[in-house]
């Protein structure tokens, strides 16, 4: 059977799932547990934190699956919100994705890669390694969609294999710690506390990427059939992986050693395997983060490209190469990523970005109800399983988290809304320029 040409190559089920898994399994699961331990002590509550975060992502994936099958076009929330509400709302979601949602996490993953690599090779300059990795992966994805897809599958398979092996070996070799994983009255109280809701923000960041495949809808084989499967398989796999991984962290390592630590996996590996084992794990995590960086470089530019197709002011970013790759949009995102790496300001950006990104996913899932009312006859090759319970559960849990962010983190919330306000100004300026032409 002849192989598809570079120009007609389509993303299949395996590549799509690998993109979702790679987008989700990044810096969040390796860094956030240490901060959760400041306010939550129960092993049961901590595991439920990751289970609830996964449930939110799974309900979101079910909802996005219906929207993507009904409106199969690349662009993600930008495309959905433009169709359901108003082009301005869609533009704002795209603006947030472009300026914060992809470039900043890509930079964060690249810098984390540099730090973990430095734990193995101390003379290494982590910043230069971060920059070099971003440029190299951009070159691969800008050259060939088929080569980029194969690279994505390979590095994601390696990532999952290493983490599954770490979980298995950790369960066999660990000295059990005095932490209770069975539910108690106090653990249920912790689950209803503001600390649990705020911690869900960081867990949601670790799960962010469950919707990655919808940014590539136009390039997926049989999107009405494959997109829902990609979203569900990828999200469910990561949910199981995250709960098991955090169980091993807590089961094998004293809480005092983990609390407040950023490099949680390095601390746990050192506890399990000694100093050399910890350094080896640090090197392996650095290699695993290649998958996360690669997937974001692959998916993010598609949002910029679709926005450029709709807005003449951004048309220069919509052009594709002969291989059908949005190279200009990719270079734009890479430039933002490098800026975040060089200035190191992305860490402050991410503190408030979680609020804005959660807000737009909330609006998107809410749009599922709006679309069913406004366009009941719209062809829906896939309907969200468990409707209306599953999307309502997403809205309730996500809305609960948003409320506590506004209440407990007003400064970050205001900065997030300021980002949206700047995007609104850009949108109306682009419209004015369009009308003037």
Number of helices: 17
Q: Determine the N-to-C terminus distance.
A: 50 Å
- CATH level 1 name: Mainly Alpha
Which oligomeric form is depicted?
A: single chain
Reported for the largest beta sheet, the result is: none
Q: Give me the CATH superfamily.
A: Amino acid/polyamine transporter I
Count of domains: 1
CATH fold topology: Amino acid/polyamine transporter I
Can you describe what's shown?
The structure is a single chain. This protein has 437 residues and is mostly helical. It has a single domain, classed as Amino acid/polyamine transporter I (Up-down Bundle), CATH 1.20.1740.10. Helices cover 76% and strands 0% of the residues. The protein is built from 17 helices and no strands. It starts with 12 loop residues before the first helix and ends with a helix. The N terminus is likely disordered.
Any descriptors?
437 residues; mainly alpha; Amino acid/polyamine transporter I; 76% helix; globular; disordered N terminus
Draw up the topology in text.
Elements: H1 13-24, H2 27-31, H3 33-36, H4 43-70, H5 77-84, H6 87-120, H7 126-143, H8 145-173, H9 185-191, H10 194-207, H11 223-252, H12 255-258, H13 264-310, H14 327-343, H15 346-374, H16 389-408, H17 410-436
Membrane topology: Multi-pass membrane protein
GO molecular function: L-amino acid transmembrane transporter activity
Pfam family, one: AA_permease_2
């Amino acid at each position: 059977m002849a192989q598809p040409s570079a120009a007609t190559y389509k993303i299949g089920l395996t590549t799509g799932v690998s993109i979702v898994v790679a987008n989700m399994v990044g810096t969040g699961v390796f860094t956030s547990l240490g901060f959760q331990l400041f306010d939550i002590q129960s092993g049961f509550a901590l595991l439920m934190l990751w289970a609830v975060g996964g449930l939110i992502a799974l309900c979101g994936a079910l909802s996005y699956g219906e929207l993507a099958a009904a409106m199969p076009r690349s662009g993600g929330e930008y495309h959905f919100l433009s169709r359901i509400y108003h082009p301005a709302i869609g533009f704002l979601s795209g603006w947030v994705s472009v300026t914060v949602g992809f470039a900043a996490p890509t930079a964060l993953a690249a810098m984390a890669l540099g730090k973990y690599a430095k734990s193995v090779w101390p003379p290494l300059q982590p910043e230069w390694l971060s920059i070099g990795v971003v440029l190299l992966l951009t070159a691969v994805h800008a050259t060939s969609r088929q080569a980029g897809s194969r690279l994505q599958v390979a590095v994601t398979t390696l990532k999952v294999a290493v983490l599954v092996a770490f979980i298995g070996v950790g369960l066999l070799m660990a000295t059990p710690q005095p932490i209770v994983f069975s539910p108690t009255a106090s653990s249920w109280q912790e689950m209803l506390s503001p600390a649990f809701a705020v911690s869900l923000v960081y867990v949601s960041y670790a799960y962010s990427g469950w919707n990655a495949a919808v940014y590539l809808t136009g390039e997926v084989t049989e999107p009405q059939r494959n997109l829902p499967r990609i979203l569900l398989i990828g999200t469910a796999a990561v949910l199981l992986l995250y709960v098991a991984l955090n169980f091993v962290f807590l089961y094998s390592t004293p809480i005092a050693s983990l609390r407040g630590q950023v490099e949680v996996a390095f601390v746990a590996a050192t506890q399990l395997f000694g100093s050399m084992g910890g350094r080896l794990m640090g090197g392996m995590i650095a290699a695993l983060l290649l998958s996360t960086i690669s997937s974001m470089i692959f998916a993010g530019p598609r949002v910029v490209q679709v926005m450029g197709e709709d807005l003449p002011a951004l048309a220069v970013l919509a052009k594709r190469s002969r291989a059908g790759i949005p190279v200009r949009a990719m270079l734009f995102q890479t430039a933002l990523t490098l800026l975040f790496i060089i200035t190191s300001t992305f860490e402050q950006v991410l503190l408030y970005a979680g609020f804005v990104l959660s807000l737009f996913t909330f609006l998107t899932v809410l749009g599922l109800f709006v679309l069913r009312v406004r366009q009941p006859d719209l062809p829906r090759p896939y309907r969200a399983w468990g409707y209306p319970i599953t999307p309502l559960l997403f809205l309730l849990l996500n809305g609960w988290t948003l409320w506590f962010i506004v209440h407990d983190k007003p400064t970050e919330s205001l900065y997030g809304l300021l980002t949206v306000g700047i995007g609104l100004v850009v949108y109306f300026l682009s419209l004015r320029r369009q009308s003037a032409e």
